Amino acid sequence: MTDITPVLARADENLPSSLDKLFELLRIKSISTDPAFKGECRKGAEWLTDYLGTLGFDASVRDTPGHPMVVAHHAGASADAPHLLFYGHYDVQPVDPIELWENDPFEPAIKDVGNGRKILTGRGTADDKGQLMTFVEACRAYKDVVGSLPCRITILFEGEEESGSPSLKPFLEANADELRADYALVCDTSMWDRDTPAVASALRGLVGEEIVVSAADRDLHSGLFGGAAANPIHILTSILAGLHDETGRITLDGFYDGVEETPENVKASWETLGTTAESFLGEVGLSIPSGEKGRSVLELTWARPTAEINGIWGGYTGEGFKTVIAAKASAKVSFRLVGTQDPAAIRESFRAYVRSNIPGDCSVEFHPHGGSPAIHLAYDSPALTKAKTALSDEWPKPAVVIGMGGSIPIVGDFQKMLGMESLLVGFGLSDDRIHSPNEKYELTSYHKGIRSWIRILEALAK
Ligand SMILES: [Zn+2]
């Protein structure tokens, strides 16, 4: 066990040069989506490789059909400590509309915004160069003081995250043995607020299904056939309406298999965040929570599964009026999954329910649209607990373990292809304007982010 006080002090002393190094990286115009910047993307990968080399990493630029990857390895001081894979991306979004930037997006600056707050401005400050450099600079401080790193570390930086990561899966597949570690660290996420760090522990899964209900063999006149012939829109809407009961629970057989109740202490920590139905829904002009009764909006979006109708069509929807009974009616339905819900089982249960409600002379077709399980780190996972404690030691308020209602594809790929759980820790803020003009990163996020990783590495090494 290392006393990290001198390492933290070193990170403080290093801050001016840590900023210089970040600014060098920020000046490289690594816009991955625009072929005009192909050379700049390579320059970004080369810069990182060279820099990691100076920190004792065995680092290389690895070619792909698209922009290169950077892979770097560093042996840890102890064989007992876990092997960690740190992931980030060095590519950035385009900068237009350029006239809305107050500063040159590729000439980073430190700006005093009053009340003792300073921000770093420029494209990539928050997404993701500033974030990934928090980790690199934590490694530098360690190496400066201790001469080694507390854990064995592999770094993977990609250059295509902002353009759909086309080379990532093939690269993970081809280099699985080299990249597989005990845990992945993913830094592309945010804090809860300025004072409260967050570790994301759950991402919901997804099942999508399109259904087409067919009745008569042609569109019918509702005066001639209405009352006698089946109307597929009625059938479809009644089936969809039956997906939820009056308490908001989903009625499919076995739907809640694998869904666990959120532990009371986790719910209690969410309570302290002060998010109410009014504050959460107020942003979109609503105020009354839908879905399961008696659960908070954070629980509903982070820890509970859903069934949503995403689209529905059939019959006549044009100008004027047409008294038609349609031959077909269709809908797109999706389910967000949590815990260990099985996407295939949910799809089958949904299909069985639909089929059992189709009249004998009508038919239904199904078209699947993707399926992925939820990803979650157990709330009592040792790595999660260590990271949480380490973050709480650094920031004014204790760290919260949050869920994420959507998904981050890389985390699913790490789980599926490398069998690795991911710890999601980042220091962005919701007002960082990522992907927009005037992107910024708080100086505090950078400085305390570096210090946070020092603490997390030390905690995970134990
Ligand atoms: Zn982005």
Task: Tell me about this structure.
With 462 residues, this protein is an alpha+beta fold. It folds into two domains: 5-203 and 375-461, Aminopeptidase (3-Layer(aba) Sandwich); 205-259 and 305-372, Alpha-Beta Plaits, CATH 3.30.70.360. It has helices at residues 5-26, 38-54, 129-146, 168-174, 176-179, 222-225, 232-241, 264-271, 277-282, 297-302, 343-355, 382-394, 409-418, 443-461, and strands at residues 58-62, 69-74, 83-89, 109-112, 118-121, 152-158, 183-186, 198-203, 205-214, 220-221, 306-314, 324-325, 328-337, 363-372, 375-376, 400-404, 421-425, 440-442. The strands form four sheets. Strands 1, 2, 3, 6, 7, 8, 15, 16 and 17 form a nine-stranded mixed sheet that branches. A four-stranded antiparallel sheet has the order 11-13-9-14, with helices on one face. Bound molecules: zinc ion (ZN).
Total tally of structural domains = 2
CATH C-level class of the largest domain: Alpha Beta
Overall, the morphology is elongated
Percent strand equals: 15-25%
List all distinct small molecules, including ions and cofactors, that are bound in this structure: zinc ion
Write a concise keyword list for the protein shown above.
Alpha-Beta Plaits, binds zinc ion, Aminopeptidase, 462 residues, alpha+beta, 14 helices, 18 strands, nine-stranded mixed β-sheet, four-stranded antiparallel β-sheet
